[in-house]
Every structure is written in C-alpha cells, then in structure tokens.
Write a structure and sequence with these properties.
heterotetramer; A alpha+beta; B mainly alpha; C alpha/beta; D mainly alpha; B: mainly alpha; MetI-like fold; 9 helices; C: alpha/beta; Rossmann fold; six-stranded mixed β-sheet; 23% strand; binds adenosine-5'-triphosphate; binds magnesium ion
C-alpha cells in the first residue's frame, strides 16, 4: 500500500521553486464550505489547504501530531487528552488554543445536522491553556481518524462566535483556519482563489517540507464538463485538472501532460445484492450472478485497463494496514460454466425464446437501482450497461432503473430492488464494513447505506469490534471475517478500485494525495519555470 | 433548447404565395418520410442490436462493418442512430400532441367563456408561462420518475400554455368575425355555431404552429438529456447519445456527430415542412 | 407657405409650354400574368394641367400612374417608346436615380389614403420626410411642415403634426398625405383615387384642393373610377379598360358624347342619374319564384324602430352612437339610411338585426316585439330578417364552399337534405349565377359574384326583410349596377322589404322609397325619398346633396331635374 | 391570422380600466395572484416528488440516529402536517422571506441574489447579441435578393435546430482549445462571457430574425411603403426608419415569451461553461430536493415574468400608438 503517485516519477531530482500561480480545475463546486456539514471528499481537497487538523494521518495510516503535539487515550477508550501546539495563529491573527479547539469540537453538540454528530462526543473540557480533554459516550475507534480529516476543520474562534453555521457553509471567505493557504477571493459558481499564508510555520511531519507553501496563489475553477477540463489543460489554460476519465488518459498524455493516479481507500465500487427477495434470496443465484460477470474484460474495455480489479469489499490501502485480506484475491471470478450449473441447481433451468432463464414461468429478471448522480462518476453508467448487457449470456435479464440522489435511499428501503451499486471512500476500515451492517439498513433510518438490506448476525457482531476496539489487530481480524463472509455468501460483488486521476502540466510538481486517495493540500506543490 | 422552445410565430410574406412545395420542401418531406419509416421499423436497415455492448470493439471509427463506427461500449452507432429515430420522433410528436390537446381544451374554454372563466384560465396560463420551462420539466420528471414517457409528458405539458394562448386569441378573433354572427343570424344555436364555425376556424394556425413545435420538443428533450433528466441509458435516444458522447469528442468524434446531425436534420426537415404548410395555409386564406 | 407659392409661380411661367411628362406606348407586364396589365398607353402632362385616368378596378390606372415613379410594382416590366420626365428618360433610371425624381420631381398621393401614412410615426414626421434634404434647422422644418399642412387645409396644423395618422379622420389623413406629397414641391402630382372612401362633403374639399394646386402650376395626374369625380377638374380624360385606353378627350365631349360603348356603360351605371325602377346594367331582369311563407303579413309595417338609444363606452365617458332614432320600414318597400361616417347607420342596422341590444327604445318586427328578447325566444324568427354586408367575403366561413354556405342557410328552413341542392341551384339562378359555382370557395369568386352569393344566402331562409349595410360600396360601378338591379328585381317580385344603408346618396336615391338622414346619431330628416332628396328641408341634407359630384348638366337628358317623374 | 399570433398578448383585466391608478392596482393584484399560484403549484408538485428531504438534509451523516432525524425534521418544520407547512410557507413568503436552503444553509433570497448577477449578465448579453444580429440580418435580407435571403434562412434554420449544449461544446473546442481566442469557462470579465452568450444567442437569433424578417416583409407590402418610396427615400432608410419599427412589436412579444426559455438555456450553458448563475442553481436544487431553493427560484422567476410583462405592456403603446386607443 503506497501513497506515492503510481505513474509519476518522483520529482525529487529538482529543487522546489517558490512562487507562481497554479490554476486547478475542480470537477464540482462543494455545496457547502463547512466540512462538518457534508463530508465531501472534494471539499476536503480544498479545505486541507486552508485548515489544519488536530492530528495528521500518515500515508501508512498511522496518526502523527498536527495541531495536537500529543494525545492520550484512557484505557476504556472514552477519555482523550490532547496537548496542543502553542505557536499557531489563525489567518485572522487570533491565536490557537484549547478554548478555540473546544469551540470547534463542541459544534456537534450544539448544532443540528452535522456530519460529525456520530462521533459520540459527550463533553469537552479545557484543562490547560493548551490542553483539552474530550469524553466520549461510547468507545469510538474512528474518533482519532475523524480528527485527522478536514471533515473536522478547525475554525478561528472569532469566526465561530461571530457567524452562524449557515454563513460558514455559504461563504468560504469565512473559512479562517490555520492552514498554509488562506482564501483571497471567491466567486460563487465559478472560482475560489487561495493565497499563501506567509506566517505558516507549523507543518505536520507528514508534509514534505516546512515553512510557508511554495505557491503564491492557487486558482481553483469549478468546471463540471469533462471535455472542457481536458481541453483547458491541453490548451495550457490550466495547470492541473481533476477527474480525468480513464479512457481520456491517452488524450491528456498525448498533449504532453502528466497523469497522476492514486488508488482510493474504503470500499471498492461494488454491487450489493438484495438477499431478501427472489431471485437473490437463493445463495446459488447470487454466486451464479457473480461468476457470470467477466469483470476483467469489462474493466479492460470500459476503463482501458486503468482501473484494477477489487477482490474484497475492503480496499488494499485502507488503514489500519493489514485490514485488507489479501488471501481472498483470485479466490473467485468469472466462470460461466459454474454459473450455469449453479443456476440449473437453483431451478432456473429453462431458457425462453429471448435466451433468458426461466423458473416457474418467470424470467430471471434483475432490477438494478442506481443513483443517476453518482453514476456519472467514473463512467459507471457505461460499466453498468456493459455488465447488464453481458449478463444476458448467462440468462439474466438486467434492467437498470435510475433514481436521483434524494429519492434513491427511499426507493431502496422499499425492498423491491434486486441490485444496487455503491462505493465509499474513507481512510478507515470501519467504513468498509458499515455498509453491510443492519445499523445501516435504510429501513431503520440512519444513513441507510446498506443497499443490500443485509441483516447478517456474523457481520453485525464483527462490526462492534471494528467500531469500538482500540486495538488495531482486533479490528483487522474482525474486518477480515466480514470480507470473507460477504464473498462466501455472495452478498456483494467487488468490482474495481476507484482511483483519483488528476492531470497536470509537466511543470507541476509535489502534488500530494490524502489518505482516502483524494487530492491533498497544495502545500507541497510547486511550479517549475 | 432556449429560444427555439417557442415556435417562431411566423408571418407571411405576401410575395411568396406558397403553392406546390419547392425542391427544398420536397427534400425535407422525403427526409421526414424516411425517418418515419426508419423510426417504425429500424430493424429493416440494420442487423445490429442497438443495446448489445461489445466492449472489445469500443470506439471504432466508421468502417464497412460499422457504418457510423462504434461507441464507448462497442455498440454500433448506425444501429443506435436508426433506433433512436423512433424515440426522438415520438418524443416530438407525442409531446406536441399533448401540448396541442391541452392547449385546445384550455384555449377554447378561455376564449369562448367570458368573464370569470376566461380570467381564471388565462391567469392559469400566465402562471404556467411564468414557470421556467426547464424547472417545470425537471419537477415533472422528478415527480413522474425518469424515463421516456415522463420526458414526453414533461415537454408536452410545458407546451400547453403557449398553445392555449394561441387558441384563445384565435377563438376571440373568430367569434368576432362576421361569418359567426351571420351563422347566429340564421338562428343556429350557440353550440352548433361553436362546433361548426368557431373551433374549426380557430385551429388552423395552431395546428401549423404545432408542426414547428415538433422540432422544438426534440431539441428540448435533448437538453433535458444533457441535464441528466432525459431518456434513461441505454435508450438510444439521440439527445442522450449526444450528451453521453460529448466526453469522447476528441477521441471519437463520430459517436457524437451522427446523433447531432440527425437531430439537426430532423428539426430542419420538420421546420421546413411546417413552414411551407403555414405559408400555404395563410396564403389560402388571404390570397386575392 | 409663401416660399412654395413663389417657387411654383416662377416655374409656371417657364414650363407652361412644353409637357413635363410625356408617355408614349407604355406597357407594363407582370411576371406570371399572360396579359399585360397596361398596354400601349400614351399621354402628355404639362404644368397646370390635369389628366384623369378613369376605369373599372383592375383596368391598369394605378400601374400606369406609378410607372412614372418606377413603383409600378414588384417585378413589373415597364417598356415604352417614350417615358420622359422633363429631360430625363425614365426608362433608363435605375436604383438611386429614382430618389431625385421621386418626391421632388413627381409626388404621389397613393391609393388607400387611410393606410398610406406610416401608422407608427407622427404626421409631422411623415410630411417632413417629403421635404427631403431640407436645408435649415429643426424649427425651420417644423415651420415648413406647419405651412404645408395649413396649405392643404388642415386646421390647427401645429397640433395635427404631433398626432399620429390613426388619430386623424379620413379627410384629414388624405390631406396630410397630399401635404407630404407636395412637400418636395414636385412639378407633377399623381393623385390616385384621392377621394374614394371619403364622405361626399370631404370629397368636395379635396377636389377643391387639387384644383387649387393645379391652378398654381402643378401638373396633376388624377386617377379615379368615378367619372363624376374627375369631370370637374380634368382637362383631359383617358378611359381605360383592361389595360388599354379605349377613349380619350376633353370632359365636355367625352362625358356628353361618349363614343366607345365601354364609356357609355360606365356613364349609364352611375345610379344618381337614374330614378327608381330603371335599370342600370344591360343584363336582362332576373325572375324569382315567389315562395312566400305561410300566413300573410300580420302588420303593415315590416319593421318599426322607436326611440332607439345606444352608447358605447369610451375613454372620456361614452359615445352616443344613436340618440332617439325612430324609423319605419313599410312592407315591400325600401328604406334608405344615409349620413356621414360615424353617424350611427351601422349601429342601427346591428340593433335591427338583433345583433346588438339598444340601451333604450324598441324594435318591432312584423308587429311583434323583437328587441329586448332572450336569444332563445328570438332564434325561431331570425330567418325572417337577414343581412347583406359590405364585405361578403368575411361573412362566409373560409372553409366552406358555396354549396356548404347555401346548404347551411337552406337547412334552417327545414328543407330535407335531398332537396337542398336543387334549392341551392334555384337560389343561384335567381341571383344570376350558374350552378357550377357551387363547388367553389368564396375566394375563387369575383367581388360581384360574392355579393350575389351573399344575397342568395340571405334569400335562402325566405326572409321578409333584408338589411343591406353598404352592400355595393366595395364594388365597381358596373358590378354595382348589376347588384342594384338584382335587389330591385327581387323586391318587385318577392315583395321583400329592404333596409338599405349607404353613404352614397346616388345609390340611395336610386333605390329607396323612404329616406332617413342621420347625423351624429340623430335623425335629422326623414320622409319619402322623392321629397327629402329633391327638396331637403334641413341644411345638413342640402350640404350633403350639394357635395355629391355630378357630371356638369349640359345635356338636358342627363339633368336629373328634367327626368320625368315616376311613381314607385 | 398571423397578426393574432404576434400581436401583444391580450390581457383580460386591466385594459378595460382608464387611468393609471386602477391599472396599477390591477397589475399588482394580478402579480400577487400569479406569484401565489406559482408558489402553490410548485409546493404541491414538490410534495409529490418521491424521496424525503430529510435524506438530503442528512446526506452523508455517518450513522445518523433516529433522534437526530427527528431533531433535524423539527428544525426545518418538516414534522408538521403538509397543510401547516404550506401555510407557514405562504406566511413566510408574504414577509418576503423565501426560506433557508437545505443544502447551502443560507437564505434562499441571498442565494438567488448572489447568483442572479451571472444569469442576468449572460441572458442580457445574449439577448443584445441576438437582437443586434437579428436586426442586422433582417435589414439586410428582408425583401431583397434571393441568395441573401436563402442564406439567412438557412442560418436561422440551423440555429434553431442545434441543441445549444452541443453548439457550446463545438464552439468551446474551436474557439478556446483549438484556437485559444476566448476562455472556455468561468466568469472572469467580458471575454469569458463571449462563448456562452454567443451560444445562448444562437437559437434566439434564429427565432428573432425569422420573425423580424417575416414581419418586415409583410410591412413592405403595406401601402404606406409606396408612399415613403415615392418621397424619394432610399430603401435602406425605408427599412431602418419605417419598416423595422413595425417588426419590433411582434419581436418584443416574442422576447417576453422567450424569457422562460432563456432561463432554461442558462441552466444548460451555465453548467457547460462553468459559470455561476440561477439556472444552474435551480437545476441542482431540484436534483438535491433543496425545496426552499426550488420554490424560491420558481417564485422569483414568476416575479420576473410578471414585471417584464408589465414593462413590455407599457412599452407597446410607445412603439405602436394605435395600441394606446386599444388599451382604453
Ligand atoms: N405588383 C403587382 N404584381 C402583379 N400584378 C399586379 C401588380 N400590381 C397590379 N397588378 C395587376 O395589374 C392590373 C392593373 O392593376 P391596377 O392597380 O393598375 O388597377 P387599377 O385600375 O388601379 O384598379 P383599382 O381601381 O382597383 O385601383 C390588375 O390586374 C392587377 O391585378
Ligand atoms: N363597438 C364599438 N365600440 C365603441 N364605439 C363604437 C363601436 N361601434 C361603433 N362605435 C361608434 O359609434 C358611432 C357610430 O358608429 P357606426 O358604425 O354606427 O357609424 P356608421 O354610420 O355606420 O359609419 P360608417 O359610414 O363609417 O360605417 C361612431 O362614433 C363609432 O365610432
Ligand atoms: Mg388603383
Ligand atoms: Mg357603417
């Protein structure tokens, strides 16, 4: 598991150059600028330049000091004591201290609808000018991780007291943090301009250098149209662009630009099978379905071989290291004969005039629900269509039914679908387990990300360990049990490892990715010439 | 979509007394007829299944095997374009029909009833006109769920207020005409007068205008596809094809050129034909 | 004002001798038409003279006149042995060359005066445009415009200049148009039908104005279909028929001793010169089969209107269209209603037809109440009273052919379907049309034929009364003559009562037994036509009569005073 | 027949009244009515949409417990009966308050006004371009030689027959990527306005110039034209001074009808050219179930429609004084 960009040779041979303005074309504009509101990974890519976090996650998944010099956890895992840096100031000149951090960590206690509400903070207490004690209501193994991402941006206390949460969300010029860049200008719907914070002297050890950032300015322009981003990079109107579709990589490289690829962490892009209703209530049909998909060749044609295949529901790089069960690799795969046999066994042994399998006069029909918004990322539309049309060979009739984001979960909760697709990026193994637990069943409220409506006791039991045990090894073991169980029962079919694919001009150096695999802070980036 | 969403209310130049269709109009009619045939029975012209993906042969340039090349999933673009004719044409035709029927009902009701009823209906039309069509369509599609039939309804309902306004103004004009008072003077009961003289004479311009609207609907449908609310993949609807293909513009321009060309061709043909008809209708009425 | 006069007088002296315009062998063809619109026309026009072109509609008068300006029409092919304006050969003028001739050389008062000024611009701006590149300040221009308007007899020219055409009456509009045409001080003024559609009184004023212009040295080319109109000011009359000049000469000789049969026919067709009972056209009389409805007349009067009041809502209060109007239509006779435009004639007709409710007063039809009824109660008796309008075309459903038009009307009498066609053919025969028009649409008929179909339709319900609102105003004299003859035959044989509305006193005089003269919504005079029109008691009626243009009565035979008295 | 199509839309109410005060009152009443109905229809439609706005409010909240859902529902008043929600909304609206966005956590009116600028800039520029080009085309080609007319008609036809997003992509590729003349996206000064405005203007040009030319040709056959020419006025002056004005009224009527489709076009092009704007916000809001924003845009669009229509009704009589009479 390496966090280094996989296709770009390290540019360490050259000495970093200071100055310059980098123009970066992002895919979408974040809907809100407050990281606590909606945990958007795209927002993190911007906020990580503006805000420092309490701790920093290294590329190996371990946690290093950042705004906190050190921290202690009580044996019951409920009380955290943070020793804070005393040399940090916000962009507005106010100092960082325990009181400000308390203000920030108390937010989920005082505000409604924050993404961080689930972290189970019970109370916080200032125990010294630079010491803060946090008490949780239940053990939460992912608590430190939560403090390591810009989902939990540390705002200036002045901003927090003078502005409403709504204002923070709407206006990034209120994003006053302690990070290496500060917001200079914002045009809603168009661009965000960052300028170097000249006083920055508290970079975490995870960074490649110390002191202020190299770049004078970063202009982030929001350009949803893929072809426009690529055209702009190729015509030198931009230095870097977000989201290069795999098939367009040759186009970008052909124009003399560089393509950076980084595997994500969390879950792969997978298919969740609804085992509650026919035909997937039969394990054989689930396995037959899985084995009837020639994932390798589909990935090759849809993504030109850029995306690699995923073998379990946890991605290889997901922290803590080892959580990914390598032994499951190649343990399953395309086998049409086996699929046919399994279907015969399951009683789907007739074939109708159109070539679909039939049982008791009913066609082997699969309703595949999908979210029409997310299907636009990564050409999942094409992949989905290709999968659906390829399954005809085995006798499955697959119908894809789109929903928009807001109604998708509600539709799933009706328990009428057979199949749904998803992926979750997050740099902690808990995230790769949670979508398969009964607590995430959309019928029970909550976040409703369990699209297979799975209620499996084995998985649920392991999830408790994954969530609360502060011993990484215990969590790793539990996660491995879950991965095996899912494959064994055919609850889900892992498809590919999502990647962040960024295109840059050759003069861009020092591009970094965060632990989830998204673009990280522009702190280490620099422009040659 | 934009402005063309309102079919141009075209006046006539008295100089052009449209009689027999000229060569351009004939060509347009021939194209339409051909498209109609293709739309009804695309299978006659191509052996490829428009939905059959064959990833191995993705993004192939036009050749003897694949006349229009293949798309990102290796589907035959020629076959998809031909099958798309049916979707796009039925979108244009049915949406127009919905707009027309609704427009006639509301328009005749508003134009013939006076006072309160007219006020209420006219106000309702104002409201519908005030509703930005794209929002109306988006909301309707979200209510009805995605799919071709929702798109048809959404686009069609969006056309009602315009058609109704036109019908109403025609009815107002016709009911004031002397042949209507002359029919009343013969002692005919009002309903007979409406059925025999008012309605038939009010419809002419509206019908003609609707022909032009067919093209407008097709374009609007394509724009909805761009916004991700039109037809549902893998439907080979032209607007959707165009929208999906735009990402491959520089890699494989043929995937987008063909559906784009066919949309333009269809709309141009519909418009040319409709305008000829309009001209003919007007000059038949006012010639001398 | 003074400047214009000085210029014109100066020009008068040196141009009097030679003709300013000479036309020889002028022909105009339009693409797609077999016959030339104008063939071999020649004339000359000198300063201070007036040449008149007379003829039926479509005879080529306007095209001839407009050829002098290069405005014969789109695609017109103009050929001539000679077409000269001063020293300029007009056949050689192209494009911008015309700009020097138009306006400053030859001015045009276009036909259809009411719509010949740009409706969106102020009258003053329109007149000023005629000044061309007038040297001087804005104020000078305005003063010049004012002077021009005053000169053509527009009262309060300063106010009028700031109004738009639609705010002026027809007469004022016509004058403003003339002002804009003479603004460029043209040597020749073409006046195309300058008085058509105007009231007789206004018509007389316009003719005076043209006469004045002529006397100040402008050459005038006057175009009209009305011989009587041109007779007073023309020095030479050219009678045109189907594009050719069939006869020409001085008014005195041409009008009193016409040589060409066409000229004679034109003269004969003028109704003012004939009394009731004589025929205007040379077509044979039509015979009608008397088909009277069962039950004789229940009252002596077919129609009686008493104390009608009607007012319309208007911006500054109400317009009183009818104010205490009473009249009686005796059975089997014709009642003529005359009066200037806006006097309420049509309003009265609408009320009589039951298409409009009076604010006050009553109408009795056949001695029974007719006004103030519910539509349902009136419906059964509607066939009794039918109308013929000025514009028959608009009274036909454009989708219907003649058989459908007549069929619908015949059906109201309860005629069985099988018998309808025969009845339609019969009706057509009665109005002098062949059965083959049954399959045609109104647009495919000539104006005269259309009016006949309208009459046939009106007769289809066996009406007692026909209300005719300006039924011949839009027709040529010769066609008008046929229609008037038809109405007279119809009354003589069917005993139908006619309510006949017209602004043309000659027509009314020819047809009506009784006359009602209206002004401003009131009846100023009423009584037997012979008395009212021959010896009016009211000044207004007298003015009206005096304004009617007549052909100078040098021939005793044509003097109405000498026509032997006839009894109705 | 045609005249009826392009004549100023006949309004039922106010025209019958004399004097401006009753007229104004009537107008205001009408406007309120339209706004109320627009809000109501939108409200009902949005309630019919499947999907719980709570889901989008809580999107991404990891493991949101039911208490939290209830709390959020209460905060936004979503726990109340629909009718009460409706009345609350109307009451809010009457105070001029459009509510608060679910997604953006900002007042809807603020969102609308901050986004408005971009859309106004885009649409007004597009209208101006379209107007200028259409007038130019019409002046050059009405009633003149066939070749020019034919070319103009072909341009118009193609202009209305190409989906605008497609045209936009082609223009972007040609004029920004292949030949870098204009920036492809963003809202950085006038240069970045060129491509989207031209794209938006294109179909407008088609429709407007068609109407203008047809009307001008119609007008060129009116009798007064002969009079004007007979005064020695040149063809060019005739067209620009007299004829164009006659064509302006139907063009103006058309422009007001285009209003709604302008916003639609803006929605597409703002997305394509990455410009800030109302259209983009509205489309996103529907997808996100950001009901306050959708309702807000609908009400706002209705308001603009009413205002523009009123203004245009006031302008008609200036263009055509004959309508002053009709008004009374
Ligand atoms: N622009 C044109 N194109 C084709 N034919 C024309 C055109 N203008 C006139 N004509 C034809 O030329 C003939 C003469 O028309 P003209 O207008 O001179 O008649 P007129 O004597 O003035 O009749 P009216 O009394 O009705 O004005 C008619 O048959 C008319 O239809
Ligand atoms: N529908 C109406 N609304 C308002 N005013 C009207 C209406 N109809 C007629 N008037 C007015 O009533 C008066 C009488 O009109 P009417 O049409 O009866 O005159 P007329 O004698 O028939 O004139 P003409 O000879 O021009 O036909 C005129 O001043 C006219 O402007
Ligand atoms: Mg004439
Ligand atoms: Mg009248």
């Amino acid at each position: 598991a390496s966090a280094a960009p996989s296709s770009k040779p390290a540019s360490s041979a050259e000495e970093p150059v200071e100055g310059g303005t980098l123009t970066y074309l992002a895919n979408t504009e974040p809907g809100t600028w407050d990281g606590q509101k909606v945990p958007s990974l795209n927002l993190n890519s911007l906020n990580s330049s503006i805000f420092d976090t309490v701790v920093a996650q290294a590329s190996d998944g371990t946690y290093k000091p950042d705004l906190a010099k050190s921290w202690k956890v009580s044996d019951d895992g409920l009380v955290y004591t943070f020793e804070l840096r005393d040399d940090v100031t916000f962009h507005d000149g106010t100092p960082f201290d325990a009181a400000v951090l308390k203000q920030n960590l108390d937010r989920p206690l005082n505000e409604v609808g924050l993404a961080t509400a689930g972290n189970a903070i019970a109370s916080t207490e200032v125990t010294g000018e630079y010491e803060l004690t946090v008490t949780l209501s239940r053990p939460n193994a992912a608590f430190i991780h939560a403090l390591s991402t810009p989902h939990w941006p540390i705002y200036s206390g002045k901003v927090l007291s003078e502005h409403t949460p709504a204002e923070l969300g709407a206006d990034p010029t209120l994003s006053i943090g302690t990070g290496p860049f500060r917001v200079k200008e914002y045009v809603k719907g168009s661009k965000l301009v960052l300028e170097r914070n000249p006083d920055y002297a508290w970079a975490p050890e995870t960074a490649a250098h110390q002191g202020p950032a190299y770049l004078d300015e970063v202009v982030v322009q929001f350009v949803p149209e893929t072809q426009a981003r690529i055209g702009a990079l190729n015509s030198k109107q931009a230095d870097a662009i977000d989201q290069v579709p795999p098939l367009n990589i040759p186009e970008v490289e052909g124009a003399g630009n560089v393509v950076l690829q980084k595997d994500n962490t969390g879950t792969p892009y997978y298919l969740a099978l609804n085992a509650n209703i026919a035909p997937f209530d039969d394990r054989n049909v689930r396995l037959a379905f899985r084995d009837a998909i020639d994932i390798d060749s589909l990935l090759k044609s849809v993504y030109g071989g850029v995306y690699s295949r995923a073998w379990t529901t946890t991605l290889p790089d997901t922290p803590p290291v080892g959580a990914y069960d390598e032994s499951l690799e190649k343990s399953w795969g395309y086998d049409l004969d086996k699929a046919q046999k399994l279907l015969d066994e399951a009683g789907w042994d007739e074939v109708d005039a159109d070539g679909y399998r039939v049982k008791d006069g009913k066609r082997l029909h699969i309703d595949w629900y999908y979210d029409s918004l997310y299907v636009q990322t990564d050409q999942r539309q094409q992949l989905g269509e290709a999968i659906a049309s390829s399954l005809k060979e085995a006798g499955f009739e697959v119908e894809r039914i789109p929903f928009d984001t807001a109604s998708f979960t509600a539709a799933i909760a009706k328990n009428e679908h057979n199949l749904a697709d998803a992926s979750r990026g997050y740099a902690d193994v808990g995230t790769s387990v949670s979508p398969f637990t009964s607590s995430a069943d959309p019928r029970k409220g909550g976040n409703g990300i369990n699209y297979g409506l799975l209620n499996d006791d084995v998985i649920d039991a392991q999830y408790v360990t994954v969530q609360t045990d502060s011993d990484p090894d215990a969590r790793i073991e539990a996660a491995k049990v879950v991965q095996a169980r899912i494959l064994d029962e055919g609850y889900a079919i892992p498809l590919y490892i999502p990647q962040k694919i960024v295109g840059t001009s050759p003069s861009v150096h020092g591009w970094t990715f965060d632990a989830v695999g998204y673009t990280d802070s522009f702190y280490d980036a620099w422009l040659s010439e | 979509m934009t402005a063309s969403a309102i079919a141009a209310p075209v006046g006539t130049s008295a100089s052009r007394r449209a009689g027999l269709p000229g060569p351009g109009v004939l060509l347009a009619m021939a194209v339409l007829a051909a498209l109609l045939v293709v739309g009804i029975a695309p299978g006659l012209f191509t052996g490829y299944d428009p939905l059959q993906a064959s990833p191995a042969s993705a993004l192939q340039a036009p050749s003897a095997v694949h006349l229009f090349g293949t798309d990102q999933l290796g589907r035959d673009v020629f076959s998809r374009v031909l099958h798309g004719a049916g979707y796009s044409l039925s979108l244009g035709l049915f949406a127009t029909a919905i707009g027309l029927l609704g427009g006639i009902l509301l328009g005749v009701a508003a134009g013939y009833s006076r006072g309160i009823a007219d006020r209420v209906i006219s106000r309702l039309l104002d409201i519908l006109l005030a509703f930005p069509e794209v929002l109306l369509a988006l909301i309707l599609i979200t209510v009805l769920g995605p799919g071709m039939s929702s798109v048809i309804w959404a686009v069609g309902i969006g056309r009602i207020p315009g058609a109704a306004r036109l019908v109403r103004s025609q009815v107002l004009q016709v009911r004031r005409s002397s042949y209507v008072s002359s029919a009343t003077g013969l002692g005919l009961p009002p309903l007979t007068v409406i059925a025999r003289h008012v309605v038939p004479n009010s419809l002419g311009p509206v019908l003609v205008n609707s022909v032009l609207g067919v093209g407008v609907c097709i374009i609007f449908g394509a724009s909805l596809s761009f916004l991700g609310l039109g037809a549902v993949p893998p439907t080979p609807e032209w607007g959707l094809m165009l929208s999906e293909a735009r990402q491959y513009l520089s890699l494989a321009p043929w995937i987008s050129i063909w559906p784009g060309l066919f949309i333009t061709l269809t709309v141009v043909s519909v418009t040319v034909t409709g305008r000829w008809w309009q001209q003919r209708a007007i000059s038949r009425r006012s010639s001398l | 004002m003074s400047t214009i006069q000085v210029q014109e007088i100066a020009r008068d002296t040196d141009a009097a001798a030679a003709p300013i315009v000479s036309v020889r062998g002028l022909s105009v063809a339009f693409p797609g038409r077999e016959r030339d619109a104008v063939r071999d026309v020649s004339f000359e026009l000198a300063a201070g003279r007036c040449v008149a072109l007379v003829g039926e509609s479509g005879s080529g008068k306007s095209v001839t006149a407009r050829s002098l300006l290069g405005l014969a029409g789109r695609g017109a092919q103009v050929t001539a042995d000679e077409l000269r304006f001063g020293s300029t050969d007009l056949t050689r003028v192209r494009g911008r060359g015309w700009a020097r001739i138009r306006g400053a050389g030859i001015g045009l008062v276009h036909q259809d005066a009411l719509v010949s000024l740009d409706p969106l611009r102020r009258v003053g701006a329109e007149v000023a445009e005629g000044l061309g590149r007038f040297p001087g300040s804005r104020d000078d221009r305005a003063a010049q415009v004012e002077a021009l308007l005053r000169r053509v007899g527009v009262p309060e020219p300063r106010v009028r200049a700031r109004q738009r055409p639609h705010e002026l009456s027809g007469g004022l509009r016509q004058r403003a148009l003339i002002a804009s045409a003479i603004a460029g001080t043209p040597r020749i003024l073409i006046a195309d039908e300058p008085t058509t559609a105007l009231d007789v009184t206004v018509q007389a004023q316009i003719l005076d104005l043209l006469d004045a212009l002529k006397r100040t040295g402008t050459g005038i080319l006057l175009v009209s279909h009305d011989l009587a109109v041109v007779s007073s000011i023309a020095d030479e009359i050219l009678v045109m028929n189907a594009g050719e000049v069939v006869e020409r000469g001085a008014p005195s000789t041409l009008l009193h001793a016409p040589r060409h049969p066409y000229t004679r026919r034109l003269l004969d067709a003028i109704p003012a010169e004939h009394r009731r009972g004589t025929r205007l056209s040379d077509a044979p009389p039509t015979t009608f089969d008397a088909r009277r409805r069962a039950g004789g007349p229940s009252s002596e009067n077919a129609l009686e209107a008493r104390g009608l009041h009607k007012s319309y809502r208007a911006p500054g209060g109400a317009i009183t269209a009818l104010d205490d109007v009473s009249f009686t239509l005796r059975r089997g006779t014709t009642l003529g209603i005359v009066g200037e435009s806006g006097s309420g004639k049509s309003t009265a007709a609408q009320i009589v037809l039951g298409a409009l409710e009076p604010d006050g007063g009553t109408v009795e039809l056949d001695g029974a109440r007719w006004s103030g009824l519910r539509e349902r109660d009136r419906r059964a008796r509607r066939p009794l009273i039918q109308s013929i309008s000025q514009d028959p075309l608009s009274s036909f459903d454009p989708r219907y052919d003649v058989s459908a038009i007549l069929g619908e009307a015949i059906a109201t009498t309860g005629t069985p379907r099988s018998a309808r066609r025969a009845r339609a053919e019969e009706l057509l025969r009665q109005v002098g049309l062949d059965a083959d028009v049954l399959a045609r649409r109104p647009l495919e008929l000539s104006g005269g034929q259309r009016q006949r179909v309208a009459i046939a339709k009106a007769l289809a319900t066996d009406p007692e009364i026909l209300v005719c609102d300006e039924p011949v105003s839009a027709l040529d004299v010769s066609v008008q003559a046929q229609v008037l003859d038809l109405l007279q035959d119809l009354q003589a044989q069917l005993g139908v009562s006619l309510l006949f509305i017209s602004h043309d006193l000659g027509v009314v005089r020819h047809l009506a037994h009784d006359v009602v003269v209206m002004k401003d919504g009131r009846v100023v005079e009423a009584g037997p036509a012979d008395i009212v029109l021959a010896d009016p008691a009211q000044t207004y009626t007298r003015e009206l009569l005096a304004a009617v243009p007549r052909i100078a009565p040098t021939d005793p035979l044509h003097d109405p005073q000498h026509t032997p008295e006839e009894t109705p | 027949m045609t005249a009826a199509i392009v004549a100023p839309a006949g309004r039922v109410g106010p025209l019958r009244f004399a004097g401006w005060l009753p007229f104004a009152l009537h107008r205001v009443l009408d406007a309120v009515l339209v706004l109320w109905a627009a809000a109501t229809i939108a409200f009902i439609a949005l309630k019919l949409i499947p999907g719980d706005p709570l889901d989008s409010l809580l999107a991404g909240v990891l493991d949101a417990p039911p208490e939290l859902r209830a709390q959020v529902a209460a905060h936004y008043g979503l726990d109340q009966p629909v009718f009460v929600q409706y009345l609350n909304y109307l009451a809010q609206l009457a105070r001029g308050d459009l509510g608060t966005s679910y997604q953006r956590a900002a007042p809807v009116s603020e969102i609308i006004f901050s986004e408005l600028g971009g859309t106004v800039e885009l649409t007004v520029t597009a209208l101006a371009i379209a107007g200028a080009v259409a007038i130019g085309l019409a002046l050059l080609t009405s009633g003149r030689n066939r070749a020019a007319r034919w070319a103009a008609q072909a341009i118009e036809l193609v202009a209305i027959s190409v989906p605008s997003f497609w045209l936009g992509i082609l223009l972007m590729n040609l004029l920004s990527f292949t030949f870098p003349v204009f920036p492809a996206f963003g809202a950085n000064g006038p240069a970045s306005l060129v491509l989207p405005a031209v794209t938006l203007a294109f179909p407008l040009i088609g429709v407007l110039s068609q109407v203008l030319r047809e009307r001008m040709e119609y007008t060129l056959h009116e009798p007064f034209v002969t009079t004007v020419l007979a005064r020695g006025v040149s063809e060019g002056t005739l067209r620009s001074r007299h004829v164009l004005r006659h064509a302006a009224i139907p063009a103006l009527t058309l422009s007001t009808l285009i209003l709604g489709s302008l916003l639609s076009g803006a929605a597409v092009l703002e997305t394509l050219f990455a410009r800030p704007g109302l259209g983009r916000i509205a489309v996103a809001a529907v997808a996100d179930r950001d009901i306050p924003v959708v309702l807000g845009t609908v009400v706002f669009a209705a308001l603009v429609f009413v205002v523009v229509n009123t203004l245009v009704d006031l302008v008609y009589p200036l263009l055509d004084p004959r309508l002053r009479e009709a008004r009374r």
